[in-house]
Amino acid sequence: MSSLSKKEMEILSSPTFQQIINRQLENPSRRNVLKGSMGVAALGFLGLAGCGDGDGAAASPGTGGSAQLSAVGFSSTPLSLADSVQVADGYRFQVLYKLGDPIASGVSAYANDGTDAANNPEEFQFRSGDHHDGMYFFGLGADNAWNPEESTRGLLVINHEAITEIFLHENGATTVAGVRDANESLKEMYIHGVSVVEVRRGSDGQYSVVQNSVFNRRIHTFTDMEISGPLRGDAAMITKYSSAGTRTRGTINNCASGYTPWGTYLACEENWEGYFANANDTGRSDNEIASLRRYGISSSQTSREGWATADETGQVGEPFSRWNITITGATAADDYRNAIFTYGYNVEIDPFRPNSTPKKRTAMGRFAHEGAWVGPVEAGKPIVYYMGCDSRFEYIYKYVSTANWDAADATGGLQAGDKYLDNGKLYVAKFDADFTGDWLELAAVAAGTVQAPVRGSGTLSASAGTTYTVSGSTDQYLNTRIIADIAGGTPMDRPEWGGVNPRNGEVYMTLTNNTSRTTADPANPRTYFDDDTNNDGIGDSGRFGNVNGHVIRWKEDGSNPAAIGFAWDIYLFAAESDDLTNPNVNISGLTAENVLSSPDGLWFSEKTGVLYIQTDDGAFTDTTNCMLVAAVPGEVGDGSTVTVTNPNGGGTVSTRVGTLGTLRRLVVGPKECEITGLTESPDGKALFINIQHPGERTSSLTVAPSSAWPYTLADGSFGNPPAGTSPAVGNRPRSATIVLTRTDGGLIGQ
Ligand code: FEO
Ligand code: CA
Ligand code: CA
After folding, report:
1. CA-wise closest residue to 705 among 740, 678, 670
2. Which end of the chain is more exposed for a tag (fewer CB within 10 A), N or C?
3. pLDDT at residue 112, as a whole number
């Protein structure tokens, strides 16, 4: 280990941190004492998860009262290009919840030939959406309230980020003379959103969806939502849907997610801007134009999926023109010019109250929200969330609530959300070359500050455009990216999922890749070529920049989640097989058992402390499908300082890399999928994993799809292809949630 700075020494010798470690070593029965008096996150933070909790399970080697996790206990799964889910020896999986599965009584099984709900698109309110992504398992007690200890019955809340359009309609997507089919558009608008489904575990350890549960619910692009927090009633929130600027309709492109210590779910709106059409900027103020550009909306933009083009004749409530933000009316209450400003938030959903109205929490900022990860929770201290904006050169943020945590709010639902998520401080992260960092408060950017020119989304180069003048205290919530530019945050290589180590409170965040990076800095130190030579057009896309991504981590000063300073290093640099001998790429010393590319999903088991990393990759895909790896996390500062030399003018930078513990591949997915959406049963015996968009590159229904996973098996269940089976014309793959368990019923990852 290289020498530590004074600031780092102070952090490592912090009495608070040491007391916590000592407590977790001394008192493994504290879990039950704490239950009810502190938030569930604190249970994990104190390292008590993994100690016997009275459910009869024998503690596994590696946990069992020990605070330190030493290894993951399975052999690495080989890389795979098969159209199947590969799991490590000793593990099994089941397919739990697939696109189109019915979640209300009387709804038929999904035909999966494009005819489902073709003439009654609303039927998709009672079926699973597509592109399963972020999710969370809420244990459901006998009293039908949240029980963080319950594993046999739960509410699984799942984001449906997007769609693979070709598989949703009988003949693929229909567009005639530039006009999208109306029923197809409506169906797709119901397919996006969020599922709440009750699941139960049988005596065989397998889970099933309770089709007629009263908790089952779909939230979609038509669901009424409250605008909550500082932008409620703001002029920018006024639309034809809500002239008071207090409501909006629906949520979209919900990527990763978060949960709260009061038993609610945060669905985070990521790439929402593309669903809106904009014909011109006529009538817009300079600030509005600057905002549109900074959020990636051009002055001549068509809508993703083309919903804004569909014929609205005979429709109620402007289902299609609501996606067109061009100014057409006399005032903002006469059109949807401001609809774009009602998206880009964290949406709080109470899964235990099926009739509740979700709330957009504007105090947590507006950007390409990947997810929201709660920091360690302690009575009398603020609630803290870590958040990333997933776009090239965007930022990492932190939200610190004004209110201090009161355990009496633990079942408070959306009212508790009002208390903790509507009023707080927003910070952007700045990573310094001495491996410390600062949380820069956005409120410190003064009104009257002029930002010119506005940096365009996705590139470091300044784009021509109007200037933005900071007008007041709400700018940080509405135009968070712009205020973060002025504050001086560090532009990162696409912040994806985060996670908080339950053993020590350190925060990890994936930086999945950045194919636009040409210069390097200590926190984003690599820019190089994907030099695959087989030219198969898949993995060797000629990518340059941070091709394979990395995972950064930080430790807050004094182990205080609300601190304004931190120490950081890079936990892991991803790399492909053909770069293992390149010291400027394979900085972490990966081997054949753990090569991976484009880390995206990230999850700490609260039960075992194992760190899971999932991939969503387009660079290594000539060699392997996407995967889930399991790792033993170390701690900030456990590694060494290294010098990275980048080719072609990328520069030489000094950075600090962690010492990699055991890191092994647990799952590899089917063709053309992303592995995402991790959550676990509280007893640590089941991992819920999402297989998103298998076969997404399929371009025609007249040829065999590139994936047909999951396959129908002889007994009517779904799984890997039976021997000798391969995709045939007419087969359609489906995004799905799978459940990973050990064949001996033990703890996952041990
Ligand atoms: Fe939806 Fe950033 O992945
Ligand atoms: Ca993602
Ligand atoms: Ca490659």
Report:
1. 670
2. N
3. 98
